[in-house]
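Entry:
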Amino acid sequence: MELKFEHFATQGQVRHHIQSCEGKHKQQVVYSSYHDALTQICYGCKKIRSNCNFEKDDVEVASSEINSSLDKTSDVVQSVKVGFREDKTGDTNSAQSEPSD
């Protein structure tokens, strides 16, 4: 998944996008008191929106790291799905240890 970066002048503009995506898309939102900035990562829109004045190189590195993390997460989810499909025992407690006599 590729995420595009959008810069906004105010937190209000970012908040508008957060509210418009609320309940429609999965998203993460963070406020930085150090930067006095609001940042949204919206997975439905595939965008990072912020009023923080990041350096261009910082945005490219952060986007690359997020995209790499998303790829790894997707791989883990796929392997869990495959493992779940392969378990045909129907025993939902198979991961719990049995008490010994």
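Residues 66 and 72 are 10 Å apart (CA to CA).
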